[in-house]
Amino acid sequence: MSRIPSPGAAQGDPWAAPVRGLLLDIDDTLVDTQAAMRGSCRVGAAAAWPDRPGEVHERISDVFYDDPGGYFDAYTRGEYAFPEMRAARYHEACRAAGLPETGFETFEAAYREAFARSQVAFDDALAFLDAAAATGVAVGFVTNSGQEQTEVKLDAVGLRGRGPVVTTDTLGVGKPDPAIFTRAMELVGGNREETLVVGDTLPTDVEGGLAAGMRVAWIQRPDRPEPRNAGWGTPVDDPRVRIVAGLAEVTALLGPVVGRGPVLRP
Known about the structure:
Keywords: Hydrolase, Magnesium, Metal-binding. By secondary structure, the chain is an alpha/beta fold. Helix content is 43%, strand content 9%.
């Protein structure tokens, strides 16, 4: 079916096209993953090292979350299986805390239980998804986490079934590989010019979305600590990127279903 060109498209305005598809990051965009991870790491560390003081548990949590060895990023490149990546991060944290590299199974079991009950969606997440549905915008989820962990998050906060989900396990690689965004776009339908990526992290969500030929709403929540490697405050000289303080700013840009359908207003 042919479409009428959007006003302003001839002048090269990347925001003139309507938004008919949303590809949403999950961690620290829809769900407060940083808080859940840090708290669950402390629980896991206390289970693995019950005779050590709280400062040691905090140290393990900090290093596991910060991941200075880059094991999670290596997982997203297909260099580690998910369990191996998790063990490598734990062992690195033990070394940093001056502990032997033992107790991973105990840590992981306690972490998983705590993580499942620690999931909290941001206050604007459900309203944003409802607004997208009301305006007829198709929604998909794109995350660098594994399939199992992602299902835990979506189930815990009531987001399962709100759209197709593409994880690192789907194609064996994660963001910023453009193939991840392309696959998600295919699942929700539409094309690159009418698809908007919403995420919090520069090297994965922003750079990956741009490499896939899409526009990006880069969320930087002022009331939350900056997530790992998010790159907030880094200048991005690309007109396809909008910085937003929350999902309500994206919701406000979705127009009503009139004529050509939902439109992202500049």
